[in-house]
Amino acid sequence: MKVLKFGGTSVGSALRMKDVAKLICDGNEKIVVLSAMSGTTNNLVEIADYFYKMNSSGALEKINLLEQKYLDVVDSLYKNKIYREEAIKTIKSIFDYLRSFSKSVFTLFEERAILAQGEILSTNLFHYYLLEQGENVALLPALEFMRIDKNAEPDTAFIAENIEKLLAAHPDKTIYITQGYICRNFYGEIDNLQRGGSDYSASLIGAAVKADEIQIWTDIDGMHNNDPRFVEGTQPVPFLHFEEAAELAYFGAKILHPTCILPAKLNNIPVRLLNTMQPQAAGTLISMQSKKGSLQAVAAKDGITAIKIKSGRMLLAHGFMRKVFEIFESYQTAIDMITTSEVGVSITIDNTKRLDEILNSLKKLGTVSVDKDMVIICVVGDLPSQNIGFQAKAVDALKEIPIRMISYGGSNYNISFLIKAVDKKPALMALSKGLFS
Ligand code: ADP
Ligand code: ASP
Ligand code: MG
Q1: What is the CATH number of the domain that holds 21?
Q2: In terms of Cα–Cα distance, which of 178, 190, 181 is closest to 101?
């Protein structure tokens, strides 16, 4: 069994949905995970925001506009009156549900329920379309098997047990469609796997059914060696090790959700990144195999804050690091990068919700300074310490860029640089020139 995930652009119009249908209808059994049509989740976020601000008329205006967009899709998607009417009925009921929030108190709970409707819409429309085409297809509701626990971590045992049950309930089907991104939480409420989380859904499902392959179909021909939104002439990377792909995803390569590689890696399921608009392109194959002796790709993670703690008493002061880490732990803030010297330690974080409390606590340990608007540039490749020269190449490529921190040796696959946000584009361009041209 293969799991294929199609992102927002890949199902972004009636025409695109028809192309996806052509791609997947080959008689082989598969699970197809869909995102919401492109733009929809952003629209739903805006609608929720209007409700939060108690601006019901603003919300209703947005809802009606979005509903019209879906009715237009129906016009171009179906030929058969029966499926057209079924689709219109589904759309009406989902949009009536959205409108009903104007009469209730609005909390995070209602917001999550609203955000889930994008994937519910796209999968229903696509399901009706495949039925119209005479395909042997079933729609599996993600809310019946995708669940996160108290710590917002996927409940893998529950997911595996319940998806198996649903599959077993439809034994004669060839194509199983389900929603990416959406899930239930520990309390049974509707929740989600964070923005871009459909990739994560696909790999969790792949792991649950022990798939032979997970395919992430998107709008570009694989993982490129640099961010195509900032650098021209980037090239697809044919093969990546799981660890390399995970580093790139975590450090900003938007093509993959940061956590999506882990379930695939744990179960040794290859992940293929493919382009819906160019299905013949080889894309990127992510597996246990790594390409020896080269640097593979570069990514950048925005919104980083660097904190430096200087303490005259740090030299040989055992327990100092523990105290520092405990402060971050107690405010549930993950650390991305660390560098140390005799007199101090620099740490970066991307979640600044508890920054003031963290700083107040750190001040008890020494002098604290903060740099905001920073970016982590991550260079990924075959980088164990015996491979001399690669880190020198990366540092040399960045010789014109002021560097605040460097981290090397945390894994065999990554070297990270902390720079100012204003230097991001020149740094990415310099790395493409220095490493890949
Ligand atoms: P989807 O909606 O299919 O999930 P995304 O927009 O989330 O698609 O991810 C695909 C986009 O990721 C590409 O269009 C590209 O702009 C961006 N991207 C950023 N870094 C990279 C990279 N290194 N390689 C490929 N794409 C990248
Ligand atoms: N629709 C969700 C989003 O836009 C999830 C996804 O596309 O992966 O974030
Ligand atoms: Mg995505």
Answers
A1: 3.40.1160.10
A2: 190
